């Protein structure tokens, strides 16, 4: 006896399979841990890190927010998925995840690399998010240290950085990471915690991400962001290079000058991991912004 499949049934089957593929693709470049309840909040970590760095932030907000804590492929022990335009693909995945999960006007918070992704995401889907908090992460990193930098002028440095980073052994990567963390975090305990996470990071993924951040300029792109943006900066690491509080404010403000509703806050004492170094200041600013 012949089995007859109707066109509507076939159509439903195709739709089901495509739906599953889309849902799977929405999370193909990261895993998500969900904690708390309330308004949705998406949190994206920085270089060498994982969603674990948001532990204190999640504890602070999980009574009022449903926290979607992202860990990217190649970070925190997740299998690498390096590809061309990795960060652009992650940005698209965050948008797909937000839509697939039907998150209504989430807040998106990112640190460093995560802030770069958060700004790009909000610019690419201007009606999707309620607010953006960028924690010491900017649209074009080279211009923060070298005013007047362009993609063209920064490319040789980006190429060299990629070659050096991708050629590291695991031991070299860990030694260099610990050295850099000393300039980014004050507390030895937090340095040790981040180092424990960094040891699980894929070296080539870190090199790829650093290259893409150094060779991608979002300063014009972020003009598409409709929602309010809070950019939090730290200047103490630049203090020995004749950077004052005022000039740091100017540097960070220039990065978001094209954003319609941007607020810039600079900590005088916190290093790059502001939420570790100055938690009281950090939560005062974020709480006020989220009201």
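^ structure tokens above, recovered residues below v
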């Amino acid at each position: 006896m012949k089995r007859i499949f109707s066109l509507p049934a076939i159509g439903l089957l195709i739709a089901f399979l495509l739906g599953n593929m889309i849902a799977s693709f929405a999370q193909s470049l990261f895993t998500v841990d969900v904690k708390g309840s309330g308004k949705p909040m998406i949190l994206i970590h920085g270089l060498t890190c994982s969603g674990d760095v948001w532990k204190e932030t999640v504890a602070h907000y999980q009574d009022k927010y449903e926290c979607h804590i992202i860990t990217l492929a190649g970070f925190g022990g997740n299998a690498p998925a390096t590809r061309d335009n990795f960060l652009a693909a992650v940005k698209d995945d965050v948008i797909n995840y937000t839509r697939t999960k039907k998150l209504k006007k989430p807040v998106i918070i990112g640190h460093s690399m995560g802030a770069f992704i958060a700004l790009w995401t909000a610019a690419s889907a201007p009606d999707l998010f309620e607010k953006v908090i960028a924690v010491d992460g900017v649209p074009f990193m080279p211009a923060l240290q070298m005013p007047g930098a362009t993609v063209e002028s920064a490319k040789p440095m980006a190429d060299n950085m990629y070659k050096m980073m991708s050629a590291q052994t695991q031991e070299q990567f860990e030694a260099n990471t610990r050295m850099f963390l000393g300039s980014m975090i004050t507390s030895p305990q937090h340095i040790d915690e981040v180092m424990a996470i960094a040891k699980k990071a894929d070296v080539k993924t870190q090199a790829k991400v650093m290259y893409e951040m150094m060779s991608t300029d979002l300063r014009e792109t972020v003009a598409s962001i409709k929602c309010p943006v809070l950019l939090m900066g730290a200047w103490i690491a630049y203090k020995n290079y004749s950077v004052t509080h005022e000039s740091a404010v100017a540097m960070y403000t220039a990065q978001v000058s094209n954003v319609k509703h941007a607020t810039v806050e600079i900590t005088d004492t916190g290093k790059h991991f502001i939420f570790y170094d100055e938690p009281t200041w950090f939560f005062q600013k974020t709480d006020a912004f989220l009201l």
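Residues 1-27 have pLDDT under 50 and may be disordered.
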